[in-house]
Amino acid sequence: xxxxxxxxxxxxxxxxxxxxxxxxxxxxxxxxxxxxxxxxxxxxxxxxxxxxxxxxxxxxxxxxxxxxxxxxxxxxxxxxxxxxxxxxxxxxxxxxxxxxxxxxxxxxxxxxxxxxxxxxxxxxxxxxxxxxxxxxxxxxxxxxxxxxxxxxxxxxxxxxxxxxxxxxxxxxxxxxxxxxxxxxxxxxxxxxxxx
Length: 195
Prior knowledge:
The protein is an all-alpha fold. 59% of the residues lie in helices and 0% in strands. It has two domains: 2-113, no CATH class; 156-194. The longest helix is centred in the last third of the chain and has 38 residues, at 157-194. The relative contact order is 0.09.
């Protein structure tokens, strides 16, 4: 039964099974970052194959979910495709499969179509911006360094303030300790010279 389901999926949607390199190529060229299929897919090697997150490894239940996801032509249909990751599924939810396929000719328009409201990894950089930057929208430490720095500075401003205060207090105490030691050394040297 599993072989029949797999054969049916492969025959009915071979073109839909393959990854869409137009988006990967645009993101890589525009952002200047080396990325792979894992930006949108469950597997970094894309949907084709027998590895984890690829079509050849899907169970019958996962094949049913894949077929249901392939039918999400309109925006707003919740999809849980086993070959896509959270970002890939959210793209289809946000814009629908029809619009997504239309954007293959203009991958630079995907960010605007998706919108800049979603930040799945909560790193302060919208998913659409990470697509443009060529960084991973599901990895909170993979993003534009300056944007990550500003986000973390804002998120941990109390920590940064307390660290700066503790450092200043430590330096103040150390300077007074060294000054006291210098005074004691001078006093001891003056005592030694007077005897």
